[in-house]
């Protein structure tokens, strides 16, 4: 059955942590041992409450990140962002950037997608300036991480545009070419979180 056919008969359900955990397990399960798969599982404390579809993007961010103003003021590191928002396309990224005006306040937002923006330009901007929020696609974020243009160590919030659907009623995770790159970023984030846990570094995952 097509995704659109299934959705027409049932209302969409908001994403929950179990969806993400199951996705990683299914994807990496064939190539990793039971112990390695177990290491991919994160405690519930690493996840913030998901958007129950009653919030706007700005109001949702205000609820899950009430101390944003303080985090924004304290962030001084280049080549990094405090909040990373991942979505399925450049157009969707622009929509989210426009819709977060009431939340972001006096902070710098960087567009992290490939459409009309060269990766070298984004790397130069990250190297020379301080940005607080990055909004973009998994493909471009993956490329920036691989080329050491973006460092995830300072990232405190990773927002997944999980619930939004395109004209074909597909979520980001339903698009194969987006899913692979998305999983790469998630696995990188998971690996960092597990590796740096002893240093009291933490990141919160959230579904908008």
From TrEMBL:
PANTHER family named among the record's database cross-references: PROTEIN CMSS1
Record keywords: Membrane, Transmembrane, Transmembrane helix
Protein name: CMS1 protein
SUPFAM superfamilies associated with the record: P-loop containing nucleoside triphosphate hydrolases
Segments crossing the lipid bilayer: 178-198
Pfam families linked: CMS1
Keyword field contains Transmembrane helix: yes
GO cellular component assignments: 90S preribosome; nucleus
